[in-house]
Amino acid sequence: MIKFTDPEKLKNHALASSKWLRVQDFDLQAPQTDGVRLVEQWKQESKIFSLVHENVEFIPEYVLDQDRNPKSIIQAILHLFEGKKSSLAIAIWFMSVNGWLRGNTPISCLEMSPDAVLEAARMEAFPSEHG
């Protein structure tokens, strides 16, 4: 397990561990829309999260479905973590092995076992209720 104390190193690790899209390029991903405005709306609605690195905002590709819309499971997870985890902490949670997911990462289970990922998020958000 890698441990970082420097938030920038953590952010670099998170960004390198999965595919992230530059928000400014989202217009290219979602033609016929103002992609930047759309991403901002999704963030305000807690449908997605983002990280800013070197003055560039990124969103993780795994929060989007094949049509480039937010996966509904992400909003449910973000509601559980609201006020408890920063965007960076959420990104780290998604990429970290999880005992509730039998040692898999939430990212790797998102497609095949979204309910299990939601339950793992619930266990993370409210540990005293489950132990």
Which keywords apply here?
single chain; 131 residues; mainly alpha; 3-stranded antiparallel β-sheet; 7 helices; 46% helix; 8% strand
Note the run of SSEs as H and E: HEHHEEHHHH
Counting helices, strands and paired strands, the structural category is: mainly alpha
Tally of individual domains = 1
Outline: globular
Short recap of the structure:
The protein is mainly alpha-helical and 131 residues long. It contains seven helices and three strands, in the order H-E-H-H-E-E-H-H-H-H.
Please, could you describe this protein's structure?
The structure is a single chain. With 131 residues, the protein is mostly helical. The chain has one domain (7-125). Helix content is 46%, strand content 8%. The chain has a three-stranded antiparallel β-sheet with strand order 1-3-2. A hairpin with a 2-residue loop joins strand 2 and strand 3. Helix 1 packs across helix 5 and helix 4 (72-81) packs parallel to helix 7 (114-125). The longest helix is centred in the last third of the chain and has 12 residues, at 114-125. The radius of gyration is 15 Å and the shape is globular. It starts with 6 loop residues before the first helix and ends in a 6-residue tail after the last helix. The model has no long low-confidence stretch (mean pLDDT 90).
